[in-house]
Structure formats: structure tokens, C-alpha cells
# Entry
Amino acid sequence: MKSYFSELFTGGWSLIVGLKITLKALFTPIVTVQYPREKSVITPNYRGHIDLVKFEDTGTHKCITCGSCMRDCPSDCIVVDGEKREGVKGKFCTVFTLDFAKCSLCGACVEVCPTKTLDYSDEYELAGFARGDFQYDLLKRVEERE
Amino acid sequence: MAMDVEILDDPKHHRYVLNMGPQHPSTHGVLRVLLELEGEYAMELLPVLGYGHRCHEKIAEHKPAKSFMPNTARMDYLGALIYNHGFAQLLERATGIEVPERAEYIRVITSELNRIQSHLLWYGAYLLDLGAFTPIMYAFDDREHILDILEDVTGSRLTYCYFRVGGVSKDIDDKFVTSTRAFIDRLRSRFPMYEGLVNGNVILQKRLIDVGELDPKICSRYGITGPLLRGAGVGYDLRKSEPYSIYDRFDFEVPTETKGDCMASFLVRFREMEQSLRIIEQALDSLPEGPVMAAKVPKKLKIPAGDYNSSVEAPRGELSYYLVSDGTDVPYRLKVRTPSYSNLSVIPEMCQGMLLSDVVSAMGALDLVIPEIDR
Amino acid sequence: MELFYSILPELIRIVVCAVCGAVIVFGNALVMGYAERKLAGHIMLRPGPMEVGPHGLYQLVVDGLKLMGKQLVVPLKADKPLFMLAPILAFAPVFVPLLVIPFSDKLQGFDLDVGYLLILAFASINVLAILIGGWGSNNKYSLFGAIRSVAQNVAYEIPMLISALAIIFMTNSFSLKEIAAAQSPVWFIVIQPVAFLIFIVSMVAETNRAPFDLPEAESELTAGFHTEYSGMSFSLFVLGEYANMFIICSVATVFFLGGSSGIPLPYFEYSGIIWFLAKVYFLMFFLVWIRWTYPRTRFDQLMNFCWKYLIPFSLVNLLITVVMVKLL
# Structure
């Protein structure tokens, strides 16, 4: 009999405590961001898909077509090819594509790159309707970039 | 499945088959549970797996062991860093690479942050299963701070691939240290709120106490580990009982309960967050300077022939990697022992004779992560 | 012609009442639909609807249009007549109780002697709607929701009626207007706090709101009895739910919060409706508030709570009231 009433009162009190907490929250400022209208600042260390770096001194990337990234990639999503050209030391890179649909953003390619010409982009708003939308031609991207 | 055909064929059978899942709000992914009901009481249960199977173990046999690291994160998306940790440790043990001191500390700090993150998500999702919609938002508010901290250092928010064989891929900075310390204070100040809103709530207690009781015997029969086992009264935590990495240097407790019901594992998980905060605090205090990668990690990581094992304490229990090598850099066989698989297998015995609502609370208490079961 | 002129005022009255009823039902659904989402949002530290119109004000209108435009999907092997009948049955009866609610001294459709009984009778039809909707859907989850709903509503009608009986004994009337008028010095919440608490709890259970939303129980039964409903048939259930909330909160206001009494305003016979609506929406706010605070109860615990706590307490309360009424 005693537990019958004590349960009622402790239980009732716990319910009131809960109500107090949510009432307090009702008058607390919101913490969310209305995403497409306002965007939270993204950290510079964000790892998006890879991109070729445009170096200041040469005005372009420094890929030597060594193929390390291609070999180290766990998902085989990078294709690099090049040819020998006059006046260019090493090979000249003609193809550098990334199949981002396969990429798992592990960062192995960036770490293995001997000339540090690979880096992560900070793009995160990526959506597409077909697999082909994620075939990135990184050489074209580096040309178009400012 | 065999079960429902059998029942439907039997005209005298008065039981009722309910197919819970693969799309159901409380199976948390593509788990299917066949329930044989009498009224609202579940008399037989049959978990059906395999909807999300991606052959991770087979993939491991086809590429250099080092390249398997991103896959580990995809097995348990909530404890990605801890899965990274286990695998990096496995390869380090196999090849004898020494991890620098600082890297070990960073691993512990980030792993524990990851564990808190996982528990916070479980906390919210579990309450969602029980019908409380608000706590998940509060838990996600806190979890978001961890994700921001981890994003700053690892570069991603969920499926981290941060640990490398021989260290970690990026050093932490002062900003990481200050924001982690700020987070510790924040989460500590939030605990009383959670206790008031949720843990003390009479409706929640009624829903969890005496539901889904497990005793140590059942646990050992099914190989249940983690908070469920600790809730049953066995203080088995790999960080304490078989300290890996540098966990033996920290002063922390392994929270245990005795009853083994849903409330016990609920409280164990809740208290574990506090213990993880303690570990992080101590690790931050004694963080040494130095490199974060071992000096000599060969590009082609040849694993000497033999078999190797590495176990870590994942948020859901004991995680083991077992690797057999034939001397090349590609593993001959990699076996992953994930905790949720064993924890799930207890469902038919644990939930027998329960109300449908209790099945939901018992399944939530298991804290299932389906990709980890179907790996 | 003579006859026509004699019943004309009554006819006009009926038409006006029906129009007012419709305005209340739809207006209330708009207000509550918006307020519930907004309040839920702010309790969860998020803004709620924000995109359509200033602070998402037009969201409900857009939602309504969307739901009207949707196809009515009838599941294969569903009992089609029952399936289609259920939402109508959930929605149609809500107009009748509105007629007897005294919004202010003069604003009342009809002052029936058995006003409260009328409300109880028509509110119970909602259970039938849920039952046939759940049965007709040919869905196991819907059936569970329906079964739960019947047991729950039948059980909780008892304490609700008994706690209200205490008031009825005190006022000696079933007429809502007389009950409201009897509280001129002190509201009955002061004299009958236990009855008020019991009434509030049963009210939550009767309207199938969280933490007693077992017929819907979305984490267990996906969506309970309305799992298979889409488009307008679904929105009729929602309209019915909000209208039932409004009715039952109005009853609580009349019984315990003094109806339309309050600080006098000009033309108080009419402007009392402001106080009345303020009290009703305060109770509605309370319903929303607890919905977003508590976890859901389990079915057997819900029944235990009713039989072990609410019914004995309401009986004892009734007994004490009767004795006191006799003595004083």
C-alpha cells in the first residue's frame, strides 16, 4: 500500500521534472541552421573529393603521371595516363579522371603523391542523377579553376 | 522463410505471423524479424539477415591489407574510428611497426570521442523507439559538437578513415584540444538534463525495468559482449581486462549493473559516456609531443606468414580481427568478429513471450547497427 | 407560408451553427497543425516549418492542398466500403458536440439538458471509426492499432465520466451552460483538483495523444490504424483528431476552468469567447507539450494505470463529493 502511493508521487514528480526541462527548451534559442539559406562554416580540413592543385609558380598542376595514386587507390577510382613530350621532364599528363561514385575518401592518393599535386576539395554539395555525373575530369577542372 | 510457410499450411494454427522489417521504424536499417504472435505476445522470433551484405571479408582477400582501412569504417558507421583502430593495430602487430606515443594518445582521444558519439546516437534512437521524440534532438545537438571536432581533424563526419598503419594521418592542434575540453564541460553540464528528462522518467523506467533480462550464462552462451554483458553484472571491458593501445595508463571505471534488463544496459551505456570523458581528459592532460607516424612504414606492407589477432572494445562490444597471411601483402583470409552479430542472435531467446512493445525496447537495448551484422 | 415564417429563425440558427461549426473545425485544425509543429520544433531546438510564407505560416494550407491532390490508395484485399467509411466516420460526428459547447453566455448553438451526454456519445464514435479503419485496411499493424484503441478508449471513458460526475453532482445538471454558470465565484479546479487531474489524464488517452498514442505507436506499429491511409482520407483522420482535442478541451474548460468567465470585457455575453478560447488553447498547449516530452507507455501499463489508479481515485473522489454535497 505504501509503495502504491509512493510510486504515484515519485512518478508524478518525475513527469513534472520532464515538463520543466522541455518548457525551458521551448524558450531556448534554436540550434539548427536553415541549410540552403544559411550555411555553417566548413572546416578547411574537410576532405571532399580529390582535386589537382594549381601551383602559383607554374600556373598549373605538377602531375608527373607516376601512377602512385592509381595503384594505391583501394577502390580503383583514379585513372591517370600520360605521354612523353618534347621539353617536358618526365611524362606529360593527358588523362586524370576520378570516379567519385566509387571513391571512399580514404586519402591514400593524397598521401602517396610525390609532388603534392593532389589535394582535397571542399565541395560537399554533390548530387547527381546518374553515375556518369561523378566522373570528374580533374585536368579540366584545374584548367577552369581561377 | 520456412517458419511462416509451415504456419500458414497448418489450418489449426492460431498464431499470427507479423513481418517486422526490412522497412520498419525500429529495426534501424534493413533487419527483418519474423514474429509469431499470440495476441500481442511474441512467441517465436526469427531474425532474418543479409539485406545489406557487402562481402567485406571477401574484399579483404583481394587487395593489399593496407587498402582495407576504409572498409572497416563502413562496417560500423557509428564506431568507425574504433574499427580503424582495431585494424591498424592488427597490421602493426603483424608487421611489428611501433606506433609513436603521440599517435597512440590521439587514437585514444578520437576513439573515445567516437564512442560517446555512438552512445549519444543510440540514446536518441532508442528513445525514439520508445516513443519520445525530443531527446534525440538534444542528443544530436551534443553529437554535432563531436562531429565538428572530429571533422576538423579527420576531414570527414561519419565514416572516418583517419588511422594509418603506424600512426594517424594528421596531427591534432591546439584548436582540437581546446574544443575537446570545451565539449567535455558541455556534455558534463548536460548530463543532469538527460537524467531529469529521460533516465528518471517513470514511463521510461516502467518500459525498461524487468524487460529482456539476460544473465551471464546466456551471455556467455551467445557470446554477448559490451554494455549488455556489463549490464548483466560481468565487468568485462577489453580496455580494462586486456588493455590494448595505452588504455592501461588511464584511471577509469567499467560501469556495471546486476540485473541484465534493458534498464541495466541503458544505464551502463549512459555511465560509459562519463567514463569516456574521463579518459579523454586524462589523455589531453598527458598528451606528449612528437611525431604521429612511425618513421619507417614500407609502401608495400608485406605481412609475414602466420595468423594474427587484434581485439578492441567497440561501442557495442568486443570487436576482433583475425588475419591469416601467406607472406604477401594481401591477406589470405580476414575474419571480423563484430559484436552486434552475437548480440542479435540472442533475440529469439531474449524476446520469447514478450509484448510487441517490449520486443521493440529489447531490440533497441541491443543497440544494433545492421551494416556491422551484414558486413 | 405561415409555418415557414415560424420556423425560419430556427432554420437560420441551424445554418449559422453549422457554418460556425465548420469554421471552428477547419480553423482549429489549421491553428493546431501549425502550432503543434512550431511548438514541437522549438521544444526540440529547431525552428519547425519555416519555408512557406513568413515563419512557415502557409505550410498547413499547402499541406492541405497537397493532401487533397493525392490519390486515395486502397490496398488490395482491403474491405473497400469500410476502408472508405472510416475517415468519414472519424470526421463527421465532430460537428454535433460543437453545437452544445457554450463559448460565451450567448454564443451557444443549443443548450441541451443532456449536453455532456451528447458529447460523450458522439466522441465515442471516433473509436468505431478507428476500429473499422484498422479492420478494413487488411494490414496487421492497422489491426493491432485498432484493437488497442478500442480497449484504451473504453477503459478511459470510465474515469473520465466518473470524475465529471463529481461536478455534475455538485451542479445537479448535465447542461454545459449551467455547469459553467455554477462556477461564478470559484472555478471547480480549486474545489475538485483530483477530478481535474483524472480528467486531464483520461482526456489525453481519449484523444489518442502521446504518451498514450498506442493506436498509432509509430515505432511499434509503423503508423497504427492509419498505416494504409493516404491523401484526404488520412487528413480526415487528422482533422477529426484535432477537432476531438478541441471538443474535449472545451469540456474540460467548462467543467473545471469556469467556461467563459474571466476579467469582464465590453459586451461580455459575446466577448467571453476570448477567455474561453484562451483556456481551451492553454489546455491544447498542454497536450502538445506532454506529447513532445514523454516516451510512450506500454499497453498493459496503460490499462493498469487506469484500473489501479484512475478509477479507484475517481470513485473515492465521487464518494467524498456526494457526501459533502449532502452535508453542506
Notes: Residues 101-129 of chain B form the longest helix (29 residues). The longest strand of chain B covers residues 306-314.
